[in-house]
Amino acid sequence: MTTTQRRPRPGLRDFYENPSVPVASGDARSLRQARMLADALGPAVAAPATVLDIGCGDGSAALTAAPLLSGHRVIGVDWSQDALRRARTHMSDVVRGELTDGGLPLADGCADAVLFSEVIEHLVDPDAALDELRRVLRPGGHLMLSTPNLAAWYNRALLLAGVQPVFSEVSLRGIHGRPGSEVVGHLRLYTARALREFLTASGFEVVRMAGAPFHGVPRPLRALDRAACLLPSASSILLVHARKPGGGG
């Protein structure tokens, strides 16, 4: 009797190492987030800051933000070798690292700010991730986090109609029961209230919450999507400025 050895099924790590999986997000979100960070850091001539772009993907967000963060040192961090290979075309400093399984290869309090853009929704253990972000931030350091909004204005209507919300995924192999066609590996989604409470419970002080549009909204609805940013709890993307307690500012 012969046995056939089964090939192991691809896991979540393999999914994110797949070059066909999208790793970039919209420029509008990147610009709004960069403006928030630039305002928080102040001019680089006064005190150049070290900024960690954790989950930097292909570096396109850092490229969009570069004019607003001129003079500050931005270091890209990602666990995907393929993403880092692409990021090197946009960023001078990149580091391979993970938020779990031993943590980032970075010293305590080494960063003045962390960009955490469209990452938290992909994590199995977001609690450990926020612990690690707090560790690498100096006292008073800034966290700029963005994530899709479960309670976006169109998701509220979709749920009322019994349709799976945009951004939510039930499979890594295909889209089922909701609009859209790209599988990007979202594991968790947050409302504005849940995200604020989660950050506070994780030891951060929430300074400001804002909204950003989603580049995937159909063109006829984009004006409405931009208007929804005036009410962050209904916007497509949640932008949060939080701080690690301590420090002088």
Automatic annotation (TrEMBL):
Identification of the protein by name: Methyltransferase domain-containing protein
Species this protein is from: Streptomyces mesophilus
GO molecular function: methyltransferase activity
UniProtKB keywords: Methyltransferase, Transferase
GO biological process assignments: antibiotic biosynthetic process; methylation
Pfam families found in the cross-reference section: Methyltransf_23 (PF13489)
Keyword Transferase applies: yes
Signal peptide: none
Methyltransferase found in the keyword field: yes
Upper classification of the organism: Bacteria, Bacillati, Actinomycetota, Actinomycetes, Kitasatosporales
